[in-house]
Specification:
Elements (H helix, E strand, L loop, with lengths): L2 E4 L3 H12 L8 E4 L3 H8 L4 E3 L5 H4 L3 E4 L3 H7 L4 H5 L3 E4 L6 H8 L5 E5 L9 E7 L5 H12 L2 E5 L6 H9 L1 H18 L4 H20 L5 H8 L5 H10 L3 H20 L2
Helix pairs in contact: 8-13, 9-10
The structure holds 1,4-dihydronicotinamide adenine dinucleotide (NAI) and (2S)-3,4-dihydro-2H-pyrrole-2-carboxylic acid.
EC number: 1.5.1.2
Pfam families: F420_oxidored, P5CR_dimer
Protein name: Pyrroline-5-carboxylate reductase
């Protein structure tokens, strides 16, 4: 499948890197439109073709256009690819907020459109990729797109598009919450007198180990938490600060709701 990615910043590059490095996508059939010279250089290092401006369909012959620009500029940028969709190219968008109907307004509802919410661990095959497709997207296209997304991590098909704002708030933005948790744990270590390097190592290795223990889903995270918590021990003392009055749960609900509301705002 000839893939043309439009915009290759933090998220687009994270996805493309795994597509190419896994061997799922050949660099020969990959193009990237990216105005930033630095952005083009790192794509060129993967062996893919780069363009500062949209290539004509005759020049590239894209079968899949991947829209990976910011939602705020999508309406200005996406119409340049109408000639490619008119010749049969499908569209995969990773933009937050923008519903499928927005793309149908640009390309027509006969154009196959898939909307996916990725996250940055996609670069190392540990992402969470949640998608939904319009009626025009056939089984063969969806199977091919899933093959690409599987190189990025776990893949889930949503039941309805209305779930996408909540998905964005949880898994799309979620890595940033976890990174901030790691920052906060490391800073707490420094406040307790540890060196910055040691505190940072303890924080990130602890997050990694805990995530790996929880990753297979076989043991409930609440049970994993209980396994660390000796009665009247150190963990119980620490957790009381997080759990009294559901302090952390209340904060996480507020965090996720703010992100979901912003996703809804971006759609209008
Ligand atoms: N960063 C993340 O963790 C996630 C981002 N997303 C979505 O991914 C999309 C991209 O976000 P980021 O990669 O974070 O932003 P970014 O700013 O890193 O990347 C956007 C890229 O688009 C390029 N660009 C600007 N004008 C262009 C044009 N006319 N043609 C082609 N490319 C153009 C920019 O040079 C830049 O490299 C957004 O829609 C965002 O909602 C979705 C999930 C997670
Ligand atoms: O912050 C954002 O809007 C994008 C979407 C999800 C993660 N990053």
């Amino acid at each position: 499948m000839r893939v043309l990615m439009v915009g290759c910043g933090n998220m687009g590059f994270a996805m493309l890197k795994a597509w190419i490095e896994s061997g799922c996508l050949s660099p020969d059939e990959t193009g990237v439109v990216e105005p930033s010279e630095e952005g083009r250089a790192r794509v060129a290092a993967l062996g893919a073709s780069t363009f500062a401006d949209p290539p004509s369909p005759d020049d590239f012959g894209a079968e899949l256009i991947v829209l990976a620009v910011k939602p705020q500029v999508m309406a200005d940028i996406a119409p340049a690819y109408r000639s490619a969709t008119a010749r049969g190219a499908a569209v995969l968008s990773i933009a937050a907020g923008l519903p499928i109907r927005r793309y149908e307004e640009i390309y027509g509802d006969q154009t196959p459109i898939i909307r996916v919410m990725p996250n940055t661990p996609a670069a190392i095959g540990e992402g969470m990729m949640a998608y939904i497709a319009n009626d025009a997207a056939g089984g063969a296209l969806i199977a091919n797109v899933r093959k690409l997304l599987e190189t990025n991590g776990a893949v889930a098909e949503l039941e309805e598009e209305s779930q996408m704002d909540a998905v964005t708030a949880i898994s799309g933005s979620g890595p940033a919450y976890v990174f901030h948790f790691i920052e906060a744990l490391a800073e707490a270590g420094e406040k307790l007198g540890l060196s910055a390097d040691l505190a940072a190592l303890l924080a990130r290795q602890t997050a990694l180990g805990a995530a790996k223990l929880a990753a297979d889903g076989e043991t409930d995270p609440a049970e994993l938490r209980r396994q660390v918590t000796s009665p009247n021990g150190t963990t119980a003392a620490g957790l009381a600060m997080m759990m009294t009055d559901d302090r952390l749960k209340t904060m996480m609900a507020e965090v996720a709701d703010a992100a979901r509301r912003r996703s809804i705002e971006l759609s209008s």
